[in-house]
């Protein structure tokens, strides 16, 4: 009932006026019955009842949502004031829209790059591994070194290798140039990925001489095969070689390192001679590694372990591993380290722009309040206290902010 009165004040007020009028008529009739003349009887009834307008206001106040009612009147008055000053309103709204828009756009980008969690379980345990020399801070890994890392470390529960390549798909209509990831079989468990359809590689299929098998990326499967499950087990031709399609890997957005989701995955183990081979330790051809820390192992402990293993390999293979060490970093830190500080500095600069915009609007509001001194004085003389006036000005500022934010949203939708 209170909410009905809040939204239908005029109708409710008319009903109370009719009730009071009915009371006056009853009281007048009783006075006439006592022998009073009609005019005197009406006047006596009115004196007994009192000021009907004040009575209606008091009844409404006692039976309504008081603070919200006051807020509604404040907002209506604020809207009228903004309409009476269209020049001020336009300048203030444009200033706020520019400041809010710049911050919104940049924060959306920073959220996507720095703050959004990676789409992998327990991402805090995912590590990026590479080698490092005096000249190259992030060097591709020798496959022979990678095999030693996997055998000698005690800090990772799994360690998978990946190398980006390309291939040409034929036999499916027009030839297509595909993005390919050559991966070790343990890359998928390391990332916590399970097949969307079919299955993924097994360790036995990640060896020299193993059959040629391929796993599709989910996006490629959706776009090119319309998620058709019947293609599982069928052959496809990549670079002239027939591969058997065994499954579909789930989509994971930017896929960490290269900002592009691969179209297909093939086994690195059966192609091990292409990225250098385990017999040639000096070869560093495009291979990186991703590892998952064992529970309770710190990043510092992992780096210390990899540094120790690299030092052992340097002593064991001085000709090929001289001045080569290992790098172990949390995957998110590695992915954003080149842009983190510039983005944070840019966010600070854009935040300063918003502060300047707010200061300019505050100056405009101050100038407007100076021009409204007479209005403020009259309202004060009529009983409006400092708190009531402050609340009114806050409502006007709030309304300006909402309009400025809405203008920014409309602008973004226009250019989207």
Notes on the structure:
The protein is an alpha+beta fold. The chain has helices at 2-7, 9-33, 38-49, 52-62, 66-84, 86-115, 143-152, 187-191, 218-225, 299-316, 318-321, 331-336, 340-371, 373-381, 386-415; strands at 126-132, 156-170, 176-183, 197-198, 213-217, 235-238, 241-249, 264-267, 287-293, 325-330. The chain has a 6-stranded mixed barrel. The longest helix is centred in the C-terminal third of the chain and has 32 residues, at 340-371. Helix 5 (66-84) crosses helix 15 (386-415), helix 6 packs antiparallel against helix 13 and helix 7 packs across helix 10 (299-316). Mean pLDDT is 81; it is low at 1-7. It folds into 3 domains: 2-63, no CATH class; 71-114 and 340-415, no CATH class; 140-323, no CATH class. It starts with a helix and ends with a helix. Helix content is 54%, strand content 16%.
């Amino acid at each position: 009932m209170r909410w009905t009165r809040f939204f239908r004040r005029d109708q409710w007020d008319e009903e109370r006026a009719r009730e009071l009028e009915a009371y006056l008529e009853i009281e007048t009739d009783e006075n006439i019955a006592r022998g009073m003349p009609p005019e005197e009887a009406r006047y006596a009834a009115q004196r007994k009842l009192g000021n009907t307008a004040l009575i209606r206001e008091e009844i409404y106040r006692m039976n309504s949502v008081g603070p919200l009612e006051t807020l509604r009147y404040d907002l209506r008055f604020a809207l009228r004031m903004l309409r009476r000053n269209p020049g001020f309103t336009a300048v203030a709204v444009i200033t706020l829209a520019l400041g809010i828009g710049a911050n919104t756009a940049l924060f959306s980008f920073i959220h996507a790059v720095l703050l959004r969690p990676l789409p992998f379980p327990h991402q805090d345990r995912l590590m990026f591994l590479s080698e490092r020399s005096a000249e190259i801070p992030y060097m591709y890994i020798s496959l022979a070194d990678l095999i030693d890392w996997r055998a000698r470390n005690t800090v990772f529960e799994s360690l998978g290798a990946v190398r980006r390549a390309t291939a040409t798909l034929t036999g499916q209509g027009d030839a297509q140039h595909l993005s390919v990831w050559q991966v070790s079989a343990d890359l998928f468990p390391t990332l916590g990925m399970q097949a969307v359809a079919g299955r993924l590689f097994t360790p036995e299929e990640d060896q020299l001489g193993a059959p040629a098998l391929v796993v599709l990326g989910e996006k490629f499967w959706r776009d090119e095969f319309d998620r058709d499950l019947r293609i599982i087990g069928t052959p496809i031709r990549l670079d002239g070689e027939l591969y058997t399609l065994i499954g579909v890997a789930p989509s994971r957005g930017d896929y960490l390192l290269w900002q592009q989701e691969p179209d297909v995955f093939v086994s690195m183990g059966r192609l091990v001679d292409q990225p250098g081979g385990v017999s040639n330790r000096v070869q560093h051809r495009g291979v990186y590694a991703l590892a998952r820390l064992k529970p309770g192992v710190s990043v510092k402990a992992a780096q210390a372990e990899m540094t120790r293993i690299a030092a052992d390999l340097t002593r064991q293979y001085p000709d090929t591993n001289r001045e080569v060490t290992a790098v172990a970093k949390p995957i998110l830190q590695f992915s954003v380290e080149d842009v983190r500080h510039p983005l944070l500095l840019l966010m600070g600069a854009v935040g300063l722009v918003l502060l300047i915009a707010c200061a300019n609007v505050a100056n405009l509001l101050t100038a407007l309040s100076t021009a409204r001194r007479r209005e403020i004085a009259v309202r004060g003389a009529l009983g409006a206290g400092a708190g009531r006036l402050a609340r009114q000005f806050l409502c006007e500022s709030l309304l300006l902010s909402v309009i400025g934010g809405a203008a920014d949203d409309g602008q973004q939708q226009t250019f989207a």
